[in-house]
Amino acid sequence: MTPEAAEEMAARGFASIVEGHRPQIFRFLLASLRDVDLAETLTQECFLKAHRNWKHFRGDSSAMTWLMRIAINLQKDYWRNRRVQFWRHTLAHAVELDEAGEWLPNGERNAEQQMLAREQVAQVWKAVKHLSERQRTVFLLRYVEERELSEIAQATGLSEGTVKAHLSRALGRVRAELRGTL
Amino acid sequence: MNLRGKLAVEIEDPAVAEALNNFKASVSAWSEAAYNRPRTVVNPARPGWRPAASWTLGCVLAAGSLAGGVYEWHHRQDLARIAAMKAAAQMTAQERAAARQSAPASAPIEAAAQPTPAKAKANEEDSNLLATVDSDVSREVPAAMEPLAQLVEENGTN
Fold first, then answer.
1. What pLDDT does B154 receive?
2. What is the CATH number of the domain that holds A156?
3. What is the pLDDT of residue A58?
4. H helix runs in chain A, sequence order
5. B34 interaction partners in chain A (CB closer than 8 Å)
6. Residue A168 φ then ψ, to 5°
7. Do residues A135 and A59 both lie within one domain?
8. Collapsing DSSP states into helix, strand and coil, what is residue A12?
9. A152 with A142: CB under 8 angstroms?
10. A102 and A182 co-located in one domain
11. SS3 helix, strand, coil % of chain B, rounded to 5?
């Protein structure tokens, strides 16, 4: 295979990766930040970084786990580098919890069920808001992205035991919020 | 057991499981709507004054350098003319001096001291020529300094 052909094949492979995983990365960042514009920007940065490092991707983990790791690091870097601006921006642009909880798919529910579901979603958002950065990341990866514990451990760089501990605390917080004991 | 089943077991509490299901559905719906929203790309319009200002500045610089060049050329021409006139006057003076030295030594000193009409005329021509040169030189003084130059000239003649 000529180098040009290999390059073209790699480019095609990356294009399919972008097409397949972009919505998930965006969803994870949106849930983490509650800011559509910021989530879009970081999603773009994530894929730009992935494209630059695509030839170094050895396939030790799945492409999704690798991309998620990049997204988590980007979010962390953004927070570290622009601590003040980040929070100022996030506070200014983040969608209010009630508004975020308004989104529900139109399932076969009556008005009462819809209202109950909205209330539950708002309570979960409230609990998520008070989680630490790591707890939130682990919680979202597990219960929104439905990732395996081993994948979460790989993506976050934590051990599976630590992931379980963070999940347990996060779940405890959500449970307490739903029971109205917080 | 699939992941969903595992999650249900992990959560234990059906109410929490239901809430988390709704939360996931809500986040997905929101994300999908945000992801698929139409995006308008705004072409950043360049302000119109920028190219105009660049052109104006360019024209001013070009005109300035052209005017500077023309002024310098004229100035050099004037200086060359003055230098030629001075050289001519100097040469005439030297010729006269040479003519005086070649004149007979026996001529009385008084006669030499008393200028002949021809000599007087020559002296007058010389002084006229030098006056012309001086006035040309004095014209090189900037126009704003002209009154001062005239004053100096008048004081000198007094």
1. 74
2. 1.10.10.10
3. 75
4. 3-33, 36-52, 63-81, 83-93, 97-101, 111-129, 133-143, 149-156, 160-179
5. 26, 30, 36, 39-40
6. -60, -45
7. no
8. helix
9. yes
10. yes
11. 80, 0, 20
Q: Give the list of residues 6+ apart from residue A76 with CB closer than 8 angstroms, or none.
A: A133
The pLDDT tens digits of the residues spanning A107-128 come to: 666 778 888 888 889 899 999 9
CB A156 within 8 A of CB A138: yes
Contact partners, residue A86, CB within 8 Å, separation at least 6? A78, A79
The residue out of A65, A95, A125 marking a domain boundary is: A95
User: Which has the minimum average pLDDT: A22-31, A77-86, B142-151?
Assistant: A77-86
Taking an 8 Å cut-off on Cβ atoms, the answer to whether B34 and A143 are in contact is no
Average pLDDT over residues B74-95: 91
Are B28 and A104 within 8 A, CB to CB? Answer: no
Structure tokens at B6: 């595992």
Beta strands in B19-154 (DSSP E): none
3-class DSSP state of A61: coil
C-alpha count within 13 angstroms, C-beta hemisphere, residue B5:
2
Which candidate, A48, A43, A52, places its Cα nearest to that of A25?
Answer: A43
Number of domains in chain A: 2
Q: Are residues A5 and A42 in the same domain?
A: yes
Kindly state the tokens that stand for B88: 């001519």
CB contact under 8 A, A174 and B16: yes
What is the torsional sign of CA B98, B103, B106, B112? negative
Cβ of B4 within 8 Å of Cβ of A124? The answer is: no
Residues of A whose CB is below 8 A from B10: 167
Q: What was the ipTM of the complex prediction?
A: 0.82
Query: What's the half-sphere exposure (Cβ side, CA atoms, 13 Å) at B105?
Result: 0
